[in-house]
Amino acid sequence: MGFPLKALLILAAPIIVVSWAVMIAINTITVSYAVLPVFRHFDDPDVLAERRAHFANVAPRDTLDNLMWFMQITDLHINEYEEPERIAQLQEFCSVVVDAVRPSVVLASGDLTDAKRRTSFSSGQNEQEWRDYARVLRESRVTEKTVWLDIRGNHDTFNVPSHDSKMNYFRTHASRGNFTSYHYVHRYGANSVSFIAMDATPDPGFRRPFNFFGIITEQQMEELHRFADDAKSSNVTIWFGHYPTSYISSPPPGISHTMRGAVAYLSGHLHTLGGLAPELYALQKSGTLELELGDWKANRLFRIAAIDHDLMSFADYEFNQWPIVLVTNPKNVRFYAPVHEPLDRIARSTHIRVLAFSPHGIHSVQILLPDATTYQTATRVRSSSPLFTLPWDASRYAIGSHTLTVRVEDSAGNIREIVQEFATRDAQVPGFSLLRRLILMGDVGRFFETLCFGMVLGNCVMLWLLGTAAWRWVAQWARGWTEWRLVREISCVVRLEWLFWVLNWCSVYPVMLPWFFGEIVEGEYGVAFSFGIWMRRQWLQGQMTYMFAVTHLLLHILPLTCCSILYARARLRQGGRWRWTHGFYHAWFAGILLLELLNLKIIGDSYGAISVPTNGLLLWSGVVPTVFLWYKCWRLGTDSRSETRKKSPLSKNDE
Fold first, then answer.
1. What is the pTM (predicted TM-score) of this model?
2. Rounded percentage of the chain residues whose pLDDT exceeds 90
């Protein structure tokens, strides 16, 4: 193992240990919500008995009764400057796709526009983008064909001082612009579905980058509680919003508790995490499914969902991929919600039920049962209906889980095959992956907050262990280790007073002192800290500051600490003489400095020129200390090396 790697391990060890210890200790409760058992029960026995008595004569059959379907689209990001086909294809979606599917409701769950400037990192509402959005709705006449329920995302509130501001173009151009959060009840036959729209965008809407997390205030929570109470009279309740619950800060006991009566919460915002997580689904501890949908912006994704006899099914599709197929009975075993759904209806059903859509028309729907070797043709319920059914005996599949295959061909020759696992009575239902549960069920804001403090504490512990009298204990501990000489040399370098105090200053500044003074929203100034923004004579909470601080620590403070110590040691060991390896350290310093200057430009573009000279985070504890340490390390020579060795309690005899 080479010297640089050994030295980095010595420097990084206390930082990693302390930061993760702090983070795990504080987040124990939060993480426990996400680390659920791999298997969950098929149904709650007490609830099952009650439902059997109440719905004894209701089960999926070969009729259109007790069936409705809807769609969701999210993260449209209509942009005036880039990818004009995004708007054209959105209009095609509102025309061709909606006409073919004929949903009762379409949910547009935020980030309707992009709100980013063309030539800089700054952000703000662009009325032309909102005109384009309104034009798509108007020219496609989609609001005449279905109920279009839209809501704001974080991009829709960039640089919006308040909901009543003239900059809030959602209010004047959106379908539901008169509302923030709202409750819509859709009735079909004797049934009803409650759709609760949750607007968790911050008020005021900061410019980016500090507008990424959602916030629910006490007043908003009371309103959402009323909506949840009103929705109890509906057969099924669906919540939707822009942010996943893990990205929303809300008063205790939390927004997940408030929506505990819903069968599902539908969201967007994460854009499939850049393709790393195309399917982000989880089952909340309350029994509510949380289903994040990938974006329209880059992936052209949308969702088709159905409520069939109070059982919710859904599938996500790419634009212009036909036919669209959704098996509503038996529903996919992965998405059973035993607390909220009458799953016993699957066992009492008489028919398999499939929704199939295509603008070309459906040619055939064929179904392969688990114990069959040949496909059977399903029958269309009505001539114009998208529902196809096939008789079956559900009692044959009472034990365990089984696989159903559906093959659909449209009149244009397009074929789609769906393989779906189901269960009717007693089964162990596999849960969602740990990573997906952590992303959707953890508290992401708290994660970054504790990681930030843990990293700062870890870096300071490392500096104080090696740079004060505590180094003697470190040296005694390291004597039995083959690399104890390296620990001793690093300790000698850290004890240089100018290096020790400058690195401590850089480490503690992000969590203790003001970051900058700037124009947070147009015409209104504030002071940014790690724990919030002071503006309008009040603290405006936001977790994005902690995420930014963690990024700053990872990309600047920790690399600066390692680079300064290692370069200073190299200069001292070589008596100030030039070595070709010193070029590596100069390149390292230059990279750190350029990155800080880039971040400083981003903040200046976003929050005005005043945020540059007042920027304590990036300028006075970033750029200036980097230049100072770079110069001081470069000027270290033989005299400094000798002086440092004299100060060290370790003599040659100790070696």
1. 0.88
2. 56
